[in-house]
Amino acid sequence: MSVELRNDEYIVSANSQTEAGFWISVGTPFRLPDSAPAGKLGQVIRDALSQSQQGVPTPPRDADSPARPLLDLLGLPDYASYMKGARSVEVYAEGIGTDESIEVTPKRNEGARGGFTTIDEQAKVFPYDSPGQLGTEVIRAFDKAL
Q1: Ordered domains of the chain (ranges, CATH)
Q2: Angle, vertex CA 90, rays to CA 67 and CA 11, nearest 5
């Protein structure tokens, strides 16, 4: 799943992998001011992670853009408008309960055509402890996002 920072707010989006193997945004993204406590951000991220699935049906080629709910939420005409000034962090969870680990990876904004690409050498993996810890690590990762 991804967390974007744009115009002083976090935008948290759940992502699911299609049967064809690519990732799409699912559901309505959640908006949170960048002044929100780390614990609140972490809880919203946990909720988005729980919505992420694998093997969802691949949308037909003529379907609306998977970004449409995000653009409608923000009142933007296109993805290029969204990308201007946005930074992104990818969050991935693996395991369950006390064996759960989290990977937080800052991304590089490559514009509307290139999208966000991971900065793999800046990835951090850690055992999940609490929403506050998760939110704090995501906030720190934004310092490395370009």
Answers
A1: 2-142 (3.40.1590.10)
A2: 50
Q: What's the token pair of residue 49?
A: 């992670």
Tens digit of each residue's pLDDT (9 = 90 or more) over 16-33: 788 888 877 777 789 999
Judge whether 4 and 10 are in contact, CB under 8 Å. Answer: yes
CA 65 to chain centroid = 17
Rounded to an integer, what distance in angstroms lies between the CA atom of residue 134 and that of residue 37? 11
For 45-69, how does the pLDDT look when each residue is reduced to its tens digit (9 = 90+)?
999 988 887 888 887 777 676 677 7
Q: Give residue 130's region: left, alpha or beta (phi > 0; psi -120 to 50).
A: beta
